[in-house]
Amino acid sequence: MLYYKTRRNIKKEILFLLRYYSILFHSSKVREKEKTIKVDITKLSKNRYLYSFLKFFDLCGYTVFIPNNKKLLRELIEKKGQYTFMPNLLEEGFVKFGEPNKAINISFSAEQLSNDYFTPLFSKYNEKVYHVPICKFPTFYNIYHQIPNKESVKHNKRSVFMAGNIDPVNYQKIKFSGLFALPSRLDVAEYLYGNIAFRKLNSLIELNEFINSLEDEKIIIIDTSKDFRIRGGDLNFIYQSFNFYLALPGVDMPYCHNLIEAMSNSCIPIIHLSYAELMIPALEDNNTALVYENFEQLDEKIKFAFSLPEKGIIRMRENVEKYYSAYLSPEAVVNKLENDSFDKIYIQASYNSVKYLKEVNV
């Protein structure tokens, strides 16, 4: 038994070494772009937020260099689940290992980078810090330059739209953590299912029929865990077809990628105050969002959205577009890090970031 286990481990190690040297070889062939960034990611959680952070620099014309480290490379290869985007760093060809041949434009040490995202938001620190904003789901950045022209959408529904997983096992967790003062995604969805304006749709075909119809002033909630799923490429067009997006919290924290996806398409968020205040800068009521504090106010904000004059909708959509461009887009993040220096840069890590906050609150 020991013999077979040892042989299996040796075989596994040989396969890893072959992959390791193959990756280094192909990495050495990656052509360096005009700009380079060196990032020591060894101490960070290897997840989709980190992938997107590095992808931002790729989209802005950088070659990304990370340490030539066997342990690090093993992590990148073997991560599963939400971490599967990390191996994409190896496959997409915008990451190289070791030291650049050209002058380094930007460099971040392991000590500068942290996943302790929330603690500084709730505390007063003297350090000069930057919180990398929450990002879209990573697949959106692979079609970043293929987003349909907003002018191609003939009209925008005055209805409120939301699409996302509302699995009751996961999407109640946030209200039991005691860390964030807002209702869970499930609580809000179940409350709105009882609203007279709620419109049940059962397929993507029905959703497109609704978008193209004269029917309006409805609440559309698509639970992708049981209703139907919408591909990322289709989502951009659908976001652009609605004026208002119901921004609901994620599993462990208020932040969720669908808020950023919606705002990138100029959707006006309808969002809880606790969530709005976590954005940097905070989303402002009747300016960059419609903000509520309880279910009664949520009803009022939805009625307000339905009755908002066209001029008011255009003004708010323009404000949302400006906010996204100035603070949330890859270009905004890269520009901030190119032109300012920071003692600490905080990168989101979902439940791993929430763990830091739990430790402070024990």
How would you portray this structure in words?
- The chain has 362 residues and is α/β, with parallel strands linked by helices.
- The chain has two domains: 22-128 and 344-361, no CATH class; 146-330, Rossmann fold, CATH 3.40.50.2000.
- The protein has 15 helices and twelve strands.
- A five-stranded parallel sheet has the order 8-7-9-10-11, sandwiched between helices. It has a four-stranded parallel sheet with strand order 3-2-1-4.
- The longest helix has 27 residues, at 2-28.
- The protein is globular.
- The relative contact order is 0.14.
SSE layout:
Elements: H1 2-28, E1 35-39, H2 48-59, E2 62-66, H3 70-78, H4 86-92, E3 95-97, E4 106-108, E5 113-114, E6 129-131, H5 139-142, E7 157-164, H6 173-177, H7 185-193, H8 204-212, E8 219-223, H9 232-240, E9 242-247, H10 257-264, E10 268-272, H11 273-278, E11 290-292, H12 295-307, H13 310-328, H14 330-339, E12 344-346, H15 351-361
Parallel strand pairs: 1-2, 1-4, 2-3, 5-12, 6-12, 7-8, 7-9, 9-10, 10-11
Give a short summary of the structure.
Helices cover 44% and strands 14% of the residues. It has 362 residues and is an alpha/beta fold.
Which features characterize this protein?
globular, alpha/beta, Rossmann fold, 5-stranded parallel sheet, 2 domains, 44% helix, 4-stranded parallel sheet, 362 residues, single chain
